[in-house]
Amino acid sequence: MKVLANDGISKSGILALEKGGFEVITTKVAQEQVANFVNENNVDVVLVRSATKVRKDIIDACPGLKIIGRGGVGMDNIDVDYAKSKGIHVINTPASSSESVAELVFGHLFSGVRFLHDSNRNMPLEGDSNFDGLKKAYANGTELRGKTLGIVGIGRIGQATAKMAFGLGMKVIAADSFIPSVDVKVEFFDGQSITTTIVSQSLESLFKEADFITLHVPAQDGYIIGEKELAIMKDGVGIVNCARGGVIDEVALVKALDSGKVAFAGLDVFESEPKPEMAILMHTKISLTPHIGAATGEAQDRIGTELASQIITLLS
């Protein structure tokens, strides 16, 4: 049987699939050619990440397709229910990238509170001519310890983020309409651990209470954070989005950054991805990454081997 990993797959995933008797194709096929390629090459399984979309047109055009897999959590680029109605298995890897995304959240938080994103832009330009000026400009940093982190969406990634926050001595609050409470176990290198319970509260109360806010939700029909939500937040709040573009009103966010209502933002995803707005890309108060939350070697190894295991189980 043949597997098309159109957005790539780790070497460990390829080896596991080949050991299971599958042929793995890693040729990158253009979106409009995916259906033709699947049919011409008798592909049984299509694996994607966030780039390739598997919609109704591809599903209808490929009657021999047995599995559609998403290397990651969200499956908004796949017509999941329709695929299942056609007898196609749809799989993903919800647990494999949690730590990688959570670490990126804190990369953005550390960058924001210590101005790293802006100092890294300006030190090469002015570090030799205006060292004291830059030192003064970036001298008013903030510690994360003792501050309140508001997590919107306390699923696997939200919980991984909470664990890191606890390790830094932060207070963690959460809002999640599907998870009323969750026990979070923080494990240490020597085998010891502590467990604490996070009880969900309302979004409004979270927005009012949090010093920093991080979003961990699937794609939405509307904004979770817009002008109204920004208005009730603390002055000087920091906001991070490593979830999905379109959950924050970027126009409202820029206004809030310009006014000082929001101290900084960290964005890994964007409304107009893969062509973010220039007002976002050039803003000095925004730490930027190009949708790389799960893009670590460790996460990709876990994703590849987990996909392989599911595929072998389903088709063997």
Give structural notes:
- The protein is α/β, with parallel strands linked by helices.
- It has two domains: 2-94 and 297-315, 3-Layer(aba) Sandwich (Rossmann fold), CATH 3.40.50; 97-288, NAD(P)-binding Rossmann-like Domain (Rossmann fold).
- It is 38% helix and 19% strand.
- It has 13 helices and 13 strands.
- It has helices at residues 11-19, 34-40, 56-61, 80-85, 98-114, 116-126, 131-137, 156-167, 203-209, 227-232, 250-259, 278-281, 297-315; strands spanning 2-5, 23-25, 45-48, 67-70, 89-92, 148-152, 171-175, 181-187, 193-199, 212-215, 237-241, 262-267, 286-288.
- A six-stranded parallel beta sheet has the order 7-6-10-11-12-13, sandwiched between helices. A five-stranded parallel beta sheet has the order 2-1-3-4-5.
- Helix 1 (11-19) packs parallel to helix 13 and helix 5 crosses helix 8 (156-167).
- The termini are close together.
CATH C-level category of the largest domain: Alpha Beta
Catalogue the unreliable spans. Answer: none
CATH topology of the largest domain: Rossmann fold
Outline: globular
GO molecular function: NAD binding; oxidoreductase activity, acting on the CH-OH group of donors, NAD or NADP as acceptor
Domain D-isomer specific 2-hydroxyacid dehydrogenase catalytic: 8-315
Family: Belongs to the D-isomer specific 2-hydroxyacid dehydrogenase family.
Domain D-isomer specific 2-hydroxyacid dehydrogenase NAD-binding: 107-293
